[in-house]
Structure formats: structure tokens, C-alpha cells
Amino acid sequence: MDDSLYVTGSDIKNCIYCERVVYFSKVMRIQPVLWSQHADSVMEHKVEERNEERRVSTPLPNVRGKHFNYRITSERLMASAVIDCVLEDGYGRLVPVEYKGMRSKAGKAYSDHKYQIAFYAILLEDVCRKACVEGYIHYTDALVRVYITDGMKMYVRRLMSRIRRMVEDETLPPIRVSRRKCNGGCGYRYICYGY
Ligand code: SF4
Which of 11, 17, 62, 104 is buried most, with the most CB atoms less than 10 Å from its CB? Predict the structure, then answer.
């Protein structure tokens, strides 16, 4: 089985930002060229993650369990992820937590991050057979709670199919994002625009 057909949380996040990022990373397997600010952000993420291993500050009452760097794969869904942290609440439900080395969108979550959490919920429910109805995104300035709706899960499932089709067809998607998003943060501007 071609492992590129397995969809990951990063694929979902990237696909919402720009489908071409998924094409370059997954189909062409080209490494992104990240500008230093982004590289710094990745480093901050790692530091923050390590700090959080000592203190997970969610408003969840009665946390029964905490699992860091939780590796999960569903053969059935052909999807896999390494989730920064998975909590088990007092009702036995699973709650994914994602750490971002960046500020929130004025106290709210960015939509690509929300759907990444919804993707984790789909995986956790499929593999662990436990409900997953909310998650948290830990930004540097805010802890944002995300309610995971059926509509979000349905949207993520559609994205998963679209990503798999893209890998099978190997067709470069057209540029659908605004030029504002092509600021170099994706790491593939040098291919799309040649600089
Ligand atoms: S430069 Fe723009 S169009 Fe190209 S991959 Fe990056 S975000 Fe997408």
C-alpha cells in the first residue's frame, strides 16, 4: 500500500490553507523552504510542547488520563496522526489538544486548525471507539476550545477523499488562494512563483 494515500492532520490543515501545498508535499514529495520566522515558530512549538508535558491547563474537570505525542492510525480510514496530547475526560470521552507556536486569531482558532482537530476526532472515534466532541488549541496567547460538529466531520471526510484523489491522479491543482496567502509561509512560493 502506498503510504502517501494515508491522510494526516498536516494534510488536512495544509489542504484548507492551499491545496497546492498538499500536492507539492505529498505527490511531488518536495521539502518546503521555510523562512526563518516560520522555522522559529516550529522551534517555539517544540519548546511549548515540552513545557506542556508538565502542565496541561485545560478547563476540563476530572481529567482521567493524558497521553502526549499520541500516535494513531486507522487502516479502515487510511489515515494517521501524531496528536500533541489526548485527554480523557470524566465521562470517558477523548479530547485532542494541539499546540501551536503562534498567536491565536484574536482569541479564536484559525479554521485550518479547527479542522485539524476535527480530523483527530474522526480518527479517535474510529480507532478508540470513544466519543470525541471537543478539542483544544493551545496558542501562545490563548487556549481555545473547539466544539466538533457533525458538519465539520463531514467536511473533513470530503477533504480526505479529495486528497486521496489528488495523490492518485497526480494533477497539480490550480492556484485558488488569494495572493495575500502566498507570503512565503507555505514554503513553496519558489515553485509557484519562481522566487
Ligand atoms: S505560494 Fe501560494 S499557491 Fe503556491 S503553494 Fe504557497 S500558498 Fe499555495
Answer: 11
